[in-house]
Amino acid sequence: MTRSPPIPPYVNRRVGQKHTFRIMPAGVPRRAPFRVCLAVGSVLFASCAPSRPVREPARPVGGQRIRVGLAVNTPTVSVGGQGRVVATSRGRPAMTLRSGERVTIEVEGRGLRARGEKFETLTFVSLSQERFVTVNETPYRGTIEVFPAGDGVTAVNELDMEDYLPGVVGAELGRRSSGERAAVEAQAIASRTYAVKNLGRFSADGFDLRAGVSDQAYGGVAVETELIRGAVRSTAGLVLIFRGEPLHAFFHSTCGYATAAPDESFRSVRSQPYLRSISDAKPGGYYCDISPQFRWRVEWDQQTLRDILRRTLPQVLGIESQAVDQIESVGVKRTGPSGRATEVRLRVGGGEVPVFGPDLRAVFATPEGRPLGSTAVQLSERREGGRLTGVVAAGAGWGHGVGMCQWGAIGRARAGQSARTILTTYYSGATIERRY
């Protein structure tokens, strides 16, 4: 992917509140667009002293439990074990799996079918220490419960919060070096805060959180390392707090140059003092400029962009695909506090389509079908004889941009900042407390 030059500062203009997606005749003034908000993680007050592990508290007594949806309403799920595994159904013995053996479970009526037998639910437990139950060949600590849900099968991992977190931190940050431990500790605290705040989010579906980016990534035992486990232990029970309550601790991959204000990326979420645009600048660059997604570039020709918009506009905005005939112009019309695009105007034969911040990444999908990397983007047109032939997006960063920048945290850790300093920077005004 071509590395484009740094994006210069945007003009920071606020946007209004009304969010509309109808096509407007050319020349009609824009009505006030969306207003987005969001709540996010927390912070710790500390100095930029050389990086030291967060002081390790005593191991919590009676830690918090969590239920994680691994596979939700899927046609089948495969469960096995690295060692001997037993399964019960409503408290009664159901089956035993030998080491390496797997069983495929599917829905049948209002129950489950496995090995030719019918069960109401199945709960799997490993009998071997440090050998784990697997779901679709991925090992997990704790127990696995499988039950019918909708037209399919749902598999839920229940375990202690402190056993859950290494599988989150490893999935979110990947394998890190000892010089980056402060970033790992910061991620552990932010992820714990997010989980504590959102316990019961999907209680109607039988679990608390999903194991994916709609909540936070969770890779189970396979993504754990000793460094990650140590960082989780050293921060055990620590949660980000604002005005006496845990925060919604949002984070993202790469801010690009500054984090986003909530109303640049989200809608229908209340703004918070601890969520504002924070510069990621350092002498001679940015803390997150080590990210592989620090700068990126996407190009569309007229036909490719037209085909994409005919697919995405109906899906995202409910606009009929026939409305997208000849694309006449595309450009950023408004930006937010961090300089991210908050409105893009798309002119077609029948008028103009306003596309606002929360929808930009989905509407302007890449030629490969992926969402646009971020809304920190500049759009330039290519023309021949006055006719639009293509559009180029020069972008910065990766993800929604709100809260902690993960690659920025890694860069700050390498520079010697502590976990407390990292969190204080990204979530200003919050504190850290032991909550269990």
Number of helical segments with 4 or more residues: 8
Structural class: alpha+beta
Percent of residues in helices comes to: 10-25%
Q: Using only CA atoms, what is the Rg?
A: 24 Å
Uncertain runs: 1-62
Number of strands: 26
Distance between the termini: 45 Å
Strand order of the largest sheet: 4-3-8-11-12-1-13
State which percent range the strand residues make up: 25-35%
User: For the report, how would you describe the main beta sheet?
Assistant: 7 strands, mixed
Mean pLDDT: 87
Q: Quick one: overall form? A: globular
Verbal overview:
With 436 residues, the chain is α+β, with helices and mostly antiparallel strands. Helix content is 19%, strand content 31%. It is built from eight helices and 26 strands. Strands 4-3-8-11-12-1-13 form a seven-stranded mixed sheet. β14 (238-242) and β15 (245-246) form a beta hairpin. α1 packs across α2 (181-197) and α2 (181-197) crosses α8. It is globular and about 75 Å long. The model is unreliable at 1-62 (pLDDT under 50).
